[in-house]
Amino acid sequence: MQERANNLRAIYHSDDSNCVELLRMKRAPFFQLCNLFHTRGLLKNSINSQIEEQVAMFLLVIGHNQRFRVMKHTFRRSIGTISRYF
After folding, report:
1. How far apart are CA 46 and CA 48, in angstroms?
2. What b/e readout covers 51-69, taking b as 16+ CB neighbours within 10 angstroms?
3. 48 vs 25, 31, 71, CA distance in Å?
4. Cα-Cα end-to-end distance for the chain
5. DSSP code of 43?
6. pTM value?
7. Which of 51, 62, 64, 86 is most buried by its number of CB atoms within 10 A?
């Protein structure tokens, strides 16, 4: 659990250049997008996954053409969980 939190912090709480490399957008637009999904009710926080993690999963799969099996190791989640949020 702690390892997952550290990994997520490294993805979207680092500097803008690192965030652009990973998510293909800067931190401010990323959090604005997450906030938009939240306010419009398009995504909801679940018990185990926050909206930011769900959006980051989607952006990494799309932006880098990653397979769910690769994302499994990045986010420390099962393939089924990644598929559900994708």
Report:
1. 5
2. bbbbbbbbbbbeeeeeebe
3. 24, 19, 16
4. 21
5. -
6. 0.81
7. 51
Both structure tokens of 26:
């800067």
Instruction: For 59-86, write each residue's pLDDT tens digit.
Output: 888 888 778 887 877 777 888 888 887 7
Contact 18, 26 (CB under 8 A): no
For residue 5, what are the contacts with CB-CB under 8 A and spacing of at least 6? Answer: none
Tell me what pLDDT residue 43 has: 92
Amino acid at 1: M
- Rounded to an integer, what distance in angstroms lies between the CA atom of residue 6 and that of residue 44? 22
Collapsing DSSP to helix, strand or coil, 48 comes out as: coil
Counted residue by residue, the chain has a size of: 86
